[in-house]
Amino acid sequence: MKNYLLVIFAFLIIHPAFAQVTKTITGQILDPQGMPLPGAEVKVIDKNIFDITDFDGNFTLEGVEVGDTFRVTFLGFEPQEFTISDQNEYILTLQQSAAELSEVVVVGYGTQRKQDLTGSISQITPDEITRQPATTATQSIQGRAAGVQITPSGAPGSSPDVFIRGLGTAFGGQNPLYVVDGILTDNIDNINPNDIVSMDILKDASSLAIYGNRGANGVIIVNTRKGKSGVMEIKIDTYYGIKSEMEKVDMADSRSFAIYSNEALGVTDRFSENQQYNTDWFEEITRTGTVNSTNLSLSAGGDNVRTFFSSGYFEEEGLLKGNDFNRLTLRSNTDFELSEKIGLSYQASASLTDETPKRFTVFNTAYKQAPIVPVRYADGPFAGAYGVSADETGSFNNVGNPVRDLDYDNQKAKNLRLQGTFTFDYEIVEWLSFTSRFGIESENYRYRNFTNNLELYLTGDPTRTRAGYSSEAPKTTLTITKRNSYKWVLDNFFTMDHSINELHNFKLTLGTTVEERGGEFLTGIRRNVPIDSDYWSLNNGDADPMEAYHLRDNTVRLRSYFARLNYDFDQKYLFTGTYRRDGSSQFQEGSKYGDFYSIGVGWVLSEEDFLKDSEFISFLKIRGSFGELGNQNVPLNVLTFTTGLNYPFGPDQSVNEGGTIDKLINPNLSWETTEEFDVGIEFGFLDDKLSGEIDYYNRLNRDAILPVEVPDAFGYSGVTLTPAGQVRNEGLEIALNWKDQVNEDFSYQIGGNITFNTNELEKVTNPFFAENTGGSIGNGQITKKVVEGEPLGSFWLLDVTGIDDEGNFIYDDVNDDGTINDDDKKFFGSYAPKNFYGLNFSADYKSWDFNIDAYGNYGNVVYNGKKAQRFGGENIEQDVFDNRWTPQNNSNTEPAPSNDVPLSSSYFLESGDFFRINNITIGYSIPLEENGYFKDARIYLTAQNPLISQDFSGFTPELPGDPLGLAGVELDAYPAVKSFIIGLNISL
């Protein structure tokens, strides 16, 4: 026993001498020019030892051993591995990739190096998204990608319109498909912009054909952040800002209104010029809005498990009083490496929004109501719903009181949206892998509206009394709506990535996908519910009558098969072939399935011997593609049965109830099909200091859904929808970027893009095409028409050629028949711009950073609908009053005062051209102690939309909406807003 203990004691003493000694090393990561690379990832292979280089490119690794290998990675540079020797300090230089264009981008069902793409894809970085704080990421990237037109609204919680390469359809929905961590969805309003790690915008057939009947309007792929191995990282991002209207319309004051109205009536004493009130109605309904956001994220992980968690709270008080929006988001993304071949991951998110909507019609009401009308009478109650001056009795217009309308507008909306993706990856062999991914989305929406009918009646006219209110009419009405919806998608696909002799490189993707979506809608209405909001429930109020409406959506199922082959020879000659077959349950037999395909080719000239050693050209590629895409978001015809067609029948001629089907259904109605040709060039010059892309595209929707009106001889009436037209978009995209590291302290970047696009309903293929009119402004006048040879959304108006000797408009009598009517209307272009562009500049000097972004468009027109919606007695703009025609001032621009309903004409049409500074940000990174509690801290100031140059006299020339509705028409539109924000970013 003694000998045994002695041996153990000797071993314990001697063993440390043979143990490997650990140590701490430090170093600096540089680029080939000797400039430090902040943010490079340094990780010891097979050990949980990890660091990120600081602003000066420095890193520290503790607990390493001689012989360990660490790997350094940085975007745009080749990953490199270094072995630890006896030395303790390392200065290491990374080599640039062939070009930044070789960075990895996300494509459908996989990833590719950008230099290997044959399609057109724009990539948006996280910094570009978060640089301009906004409710949704799509609002932040306006002007950042060529070919992508984003039209926002200033309303809290609103979604912008997003068009990729023009407007290709009138009735089939225009917004793109979003793919968030594999979930196919209609928008990304529920995604916290701080959680996004990449956004890839697929624009041409070569990149889109993999999505088949979902791809015609473009696809935006969004990937959210994931956890990283190494030290836990905590980030806090918070900001606060104030908002106000960007442009204000100068309305006539009380004296001007009185003079104008007297002249319109042909009298001199109807309204006194000395009015008691001079109400600024816009000021009465608006306020200084606020916005604040706080986001907390945590990233951590080891070699086998990595996780990311975030929570965010966004709150906005809108420009319109009482119009509030707030959103809480939660996200958890986790990756598991079960073995060298098997991986599991999940991404789960929840978004809860709480909104107090207000009717935007109050903006139009505030514009039109006379300044001589007070908000309230002297004794306290609201002024009447119709114009009643302080020194007159009786109403003189039909304009409501917008303050009263806001006060009695009791709406509330809440929405819970859940998303989850579960992914299984299996590496069968080194060159072959299998992926199974299931994504699900659920949405639960609840809406409440309480209307105080009695109070609205009493405040509509000061002479009204409770006794005059009908005993049968409800005193209050409560409406509650609930909508539940779901969608899920299951993808299963194989990916083969193989090389032969390092010359022939193949990547083959084969798979299937199944989708399903459905939902239901339930509305209940209860009358005479108590006024106290604590009792706003369908259980209260009168039991009879109780109204309830239930609608169940059709369950829509899609089944698809897809294949894509990427091939390159020696990274010089590129080929991509894609095929997808889609089947949808919502179409009739014979029209359920569609086949979509694309072919793309490319040539990387910079890899050829004659350019490989060029000092000027660092990267040069030309590419082209052609293919067919689909749009399944078409409105389906609904078969209706008309009753009430009673007819005397039989010997006694008794009246019998009759009914019939009076609509025609097209059984061949299916998705719209778009074919597209694209050719592009990508380049990098002077070691990629100058880089860019130029694309020409030609898109033809050859099955555009349009209305047709079948002759009565067919036994049907009305309009039905069918593939009846061809819509073409043709354009050019140019994107350029220059960046330079001047010295160790200063670097800068200048970028810009411009898009030229022409749109036309090129051909109508059905002889019964019903030339659709639209753009109604609510006073019997329409502004738009769909017709062959014109762009979609074109304005169709009378042409005002001057003012006559009595101050009336002179209209162009096109057919010279002496009568002005619809036969004399002309087309004046579309609300969609022919050109839009973005500019950006950023610079870093020591601890300071600065950037400025701008956006603009030209070549479109917008309609001043609020100015045109007159019935008589409304207010006018001060400019209209100052320049009006009078016998003493024979104006040739403004007519004489009138209370007639104006005809829709070019007088109300204005240029939509504008140039706006979207964002100015200046930030300062606070110097911190090297081993302190905080890793990074940055404070910044941002001005959003601080300056705009516009020709339009209204609130904003950016007017989203339905192409045949109020898109491009300022009526009930939310004014554009500007914001001033202070923010703080902290890393722990």
From TrEMBL:
Topology relative to the membrane: Multi-pass membrane protein
Keyword Signal part of the UniProt annotation: yes
Entry superkingdom: Bacteria
Protein's name according to its UniProt entry: SusC/RagA family TonB-linked outer membrane protein
Pfam families, A to Z: CarbopepD_reg_2, Plug, TonB_dep_Rec_b-barrel
Cellular localization per UniProt: Cell outer membrane
Signal peptide: 1-19
Species this protein is from: Salinimicrobium flavum
